[in-house]
Backbone:
């Protein structure tokens, strides 16, 4: 699922039905939009009102125009499974698990370019402030850091298996869920050094970060509970109003 806070619409990827269901939060109505096959991810650019849907079954990304719900299909690499949107630069990064690469989609004209990364990229996140793209792999459990300006790649060991990666842009911290090691891996953006925090449940599976409180929430798949990690206190670089506008 992905939310456009500007239009108050929620986009839900229906894997088997090959469609996106749009829930209008203002009217509480539903609308289905046909896209590609075997949907694996959805992301929103709230500035341009474009919605991006990864279709793992036919190796395309469907671009939905949120103004009229028209669809343009863009060819990407093999088996796209994850998306990350850079709103600042109007770019979209697609992790192609079977293609061992990223596809960068130019949001202005839907042109593409390929970025070579490691084997089986499964998750991707972007720090829009630093223009760095973080790619997590199914095998062997590393993180590739791609410089969005030069395309240069740095590989960081980060556990044994990654299942989620999120970015706190304010503090330039990257958080990785390592379920096999049952730990939270923390990457320091400026230095690429890593630290770990052990999971308190079983099989740390999914994570989310609240930049306002500097807390990280981890869902534990096997123990049916969640862990809250309190990050080190740090002065926020912007006000709450600026955050909402951002």
Residues:
């Amino acid at each position: 699922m992905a939310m456009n806070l500007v239009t108050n619409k929620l986009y839900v990827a229906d894997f088997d039905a090959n469609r996106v269901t749009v829930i209008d939060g203002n009217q509480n109505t539903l609308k289905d939009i046909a896209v590609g096959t075997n949907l694996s991810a959805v992301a929103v650019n709230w500035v341009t009102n474009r919605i991006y849907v990864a279709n793992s079954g036919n190796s395309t990304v469907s671009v939905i125009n949120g103004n009229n719900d028209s669809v343009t299909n863009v060819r990407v690499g093999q088996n796209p499974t994850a998306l990350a949107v850079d709103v600042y630069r109007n770019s979209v990064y697609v992790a192609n698990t079977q293609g061992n690469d990223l596809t960068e989609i130019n949001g202005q004209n839907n042109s593409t370019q390929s970025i070579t990364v490691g084997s089986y990229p499964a998750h991707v996140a972007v720090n829009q402030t630093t223009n760095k793209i973080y790619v997590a792999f199914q095998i062997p459990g590393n993180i590739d850091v791609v410089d969005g300006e030069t395309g240069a790649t740095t590989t960081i060991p980060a556990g044994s298996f990654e299942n989620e990666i999120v970015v706190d842009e304010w503090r330039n911290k990257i958080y990785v869920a390592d379920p096999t090691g049952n730990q939270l891996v923390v990457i320091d953006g400026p230095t690429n050094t890593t630290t770990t925090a052990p999971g308190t449940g079983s099989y740390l599976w999914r994570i989310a970060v609240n930049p306002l409180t500097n807390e990280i929430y981890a869902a534990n798949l096997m123990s049916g509970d969640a862990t809250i990690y309190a990050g080190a206190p740090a002065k926020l670089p912007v006000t709450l109003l600026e955050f909402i506008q951002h």
